Amino acid sequence: MPELPEVESFKRYMDKTSLNKTIKSVEVKNPEILQKVDKHDLKNKLEEHQFQYTRRHGKYLFAYLDNDYWLVLHFGMTGKLIYFKDSDQSPLYDRILIGFKDKTFLAFDDPRKFGKISLVNKMDVFIKEKKLGPDAWEIGLKSFKNLFKSRKGAIKTVLMNQHILAGVGNIYSDEILFQACIHPKTPVNKLKNKKIEDVYTIMKEVLKTALDRNMANQKLPESFLIPNRVENGKCPNSDTKLETIKISGRTAYYCPECQKEPI
Ligand SMILES: [Zn+2]
Q1: What pLDDT does residue 196 have?
Q2: Whole-model pTM?
Q3: Burial (CB count within 10 angstroms: exposed 0-12, middle 13-18, buried 19+), residue 18
Q4: Ligand 1 centroid – CA 39 distance (Å)
Q5: Residue 193, exposed/middle/buried by CB under 10 A (0-12, 13-18, 19+)?
Q6: pLDDT tens per residue across span 211-228
C-alpha cells in the first residue's frame, strides 16, 4: 500500500514526465474511483490544460492545473502512475488515462480499485476537509512531540492515524517501531520524551531510506523489518520469529525479543 515514500516517488515521477504539456484526452474507464467530480467535468477541466507543478501531503498527491484546479490522487492499496509513449503499452488496470498532445500518456493504474481521484479548487481546503494532520516528512520535532501530548492510544495507532500525522501507514509504522525497539501496543503516554525524539529521528531516516531506494529501484536494507515482514519472517537482529497482532484493524509485525510489551 503506497505510503509517504511511494507517493513522494509518484510525485517526482509525475514532475519528470507530465508537467507543462497540453492534455489532449482524458479517458475515465472506472468512474467509481472519482470523488466529488463526474467524468464529464473531469474531462472538461483537464483537456486543453496543463499540469504546472505538484505537491504532496501525506498519502495524497496534488497536481496543479493552469486553470487553477487541482487534480487530487490517492493511491489506495495498489494504485500507481505509469507513463508511456506507445498507446499499445496501455497498462492492464488503467482506471484513468490522460493523453498528452505529444502522444504520450499518463495512466492511473490500480488493480484493486481502492484509489480515489478528485478535482478541487483549493488544496488547503481539501486538507482541512479531510482533517489531515501535518505531513510526516515536513513536521518538525517540536510539533511532532506535541502530537503525543494528552493522548493515550497505542503508539502504532497514533502513528497510523492520518488525522494526527499524515503519510505513515501500517507498513512504515511497523518499521519505525521496530527500529525504535518499541512494542506497537505501548501507550503513547508511557513513552519518555527521549523515546519520542528517537521515534521522530527514526521516522525521518526510514522515510528517507525508503524514498531513496524507491527512486533507485532498490530493495530496502536487510537490516530493516519490512523485507522480513512475511509469514514465518525472522527478526534481522535477533533471529527471533516475528509475531503479529491486530491493531486498529491492521496486522502489525513486531519482534517479541527486541520490542518488549510494556508492563
Ligand atoms: Zn528482534
Answers
A1: 96
A2: 0.96
A3: buried
A4: 50
A5: exposed
A6: 999 988 899 999 999 999
CA of 198 to the centre of ligand 1 (A): 18
| Residue-wise pLDDT tens digits, 92-146 | 889 999 999 999 999 999 999 899 999 999 999 999 999 999 999 999 999 999 9
What cell numbers appear for 25 in the block?
484526452
- Centre of ligand 1 to C-alpha 184, Å, is 13
List the domain boundaries for the chain: 4-129, 141-254
Decide which of 3.10.580.10, 1.10.8.50, 2.60.120.260, 3.40.630.10 is the CATH code for 141-254.
1.10.8.50
Grid cell in block for residue 255: 519482534
User: What is the rounded average pLDDT for all residues in the chain?
Assistant: 96
Strands (E), 66-184: 70-74, 80-84, 94-100, 105-109, 116-120
Instruction: Report in angstroms the alpha-carbon separations of 14 from 35, 64, 81, 171, 237.
Output: 21, 12, 8, 24, 37
159: CA distance to ligand 1 center in Å?
21
pLDDT at 25: 97
Helix (H, G, I), strand (E, B) or coil at 116: strand
Task: Report how far ligand 1's centroid is from the alpha carbon of 261 (Å).
Answer: 13
Distance from the CA of 260 to the center of ligand 1, in angstroms?
10
Q: How far is the CA of 245 from the centre of ligand 1 (A)?
A: 16
Alpha carbon 81 to its chain centroid, in Å, reads: 13
In whole angstroms, how large is the CA radius of gyration of the chain?
Answer: 20
Instruction: Specify the CATH number of the domain 4-129.
Output: 3.20.190.10
CA of 235 to the centre of ligand 1 (A): 5
